[in-house]
Design a protein that fits this description.
This protein is α/β, with parallel strands linked by helices. Helices cover 59% and strands 10% of the residues. It has one domain: 5'-nuclease (Rossmann fold). It has a 4-stranded parallel sheet, sandwiched between helices. Helix 7 links the parallel strand 3 and strand 4. The radius of gyration is 15 Å and the shape is globular. The two termini are 22 Å apart.
């Protein structure tokens, strides 16, 4: 059994009815896998929907969050995120904070990150990434 964590872009595709994403989510569930929503993804998606007052999509997102638990961000994950940030900056790479938090959440919990932005995460060690958008 695998555990998948959905990135913001995958949830956006889902909310827009992307058939590949929907089919992959259904397959994962039917195969007995689990799906989580990282806490920073919850923040990114919800703030975007609230900003544009997308009430229908907000209800769909809330329903999705009832199906798939939203993870928690604690001090350990924050400290590990800091370590990744420092490591990447010293290597001359600038990775967005949200991407670092999402990656750390997945690494710590041994989850597979589902994203359409694989290149954003390619330098982060010990992170397993897959794309369900195509």
């Amino acid at each position: 059994m695998s555990v998948f964590a959905l990135d913001s872009n995958i949830i956006s595709f889902y909310l827009r009815g992307n058939t590949a994403v929907i089919a992959n989510i259904e397959k994962a569930i039917n195969d007995g896998n689990s799906i989580f929503i990282p806490p920073l993804v919850y923040y990114e998606v919800k703030r975007g929907l609230m900003l544009i007052n997308a009430t229908k999509k907000m209800k769909e997102f809330d329903a999705l969050c009832e199906l798939f638990p939203v993870g928690e961000l604690d001090n350990y994950l924050l400290d590990e995120s800091i370590n990744i940030y420092v490591q990447e900056r010293k290597a001359g790479r600038n990775i967005e904070d949200a991407d670092i938090f999402i990656a750390t959440f997945c690494i710590h919990n041994n989850y597979i990150l589902v994203t359409d932005n694989i290149k954003h995460f390619k330098y982060i060690n010990n992170l397993h990434v897959i794309n369900w958008a195509n």
